[in-house]
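Hey, resending since the last one bounced:
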Amino acid sequence: MTRAHTLPIAAALIALALLTAAAPSPDTATMPDAAYGEGGTRESHTNAKHELLGEIWRDEIGIIREQFEQDPDGTQYWGFYNGDGQNMSDWRRSVIAIRPMARPADRWQMWVIGPGDMTVKEASTLTRAELDTEFDYWHTQLRSWVHNAQRQQRSNR
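The structure tokens again:
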């Protein structure tokens, strides 16, 4: 993998780690969410203007399963965690990173990174419609990987 390819991956992992480590602010709301099972939660982080900055989805026992962060420049990071929550190095992260392009205008780049920092998909100059289609597919796919890991972990308890 070239250095240009590792930059968005490293930035995504650092950004997701910082959001996880950040203490809840007055602009944080936690609500029930069944995306990763009954009893799960979704925590939303907003700024003073009530603009969404990030979200964290947890399963019923509090393990982070998905995390979203958006930078002021429009770059988005989506992290998915397949591990059992015991050891960060064993979490088998997957990431979707989306970045708006300066040129051509109204186009985006997207990377999908699987466990082991494996590039699964890389695309650029995507139109909004193409980005939405690709994102919907890969978001569903990465969530299904997490759900499969959860089922396996439940059967091992």
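The longest helix spans residues 128-156.

Sorry for the duplicate.
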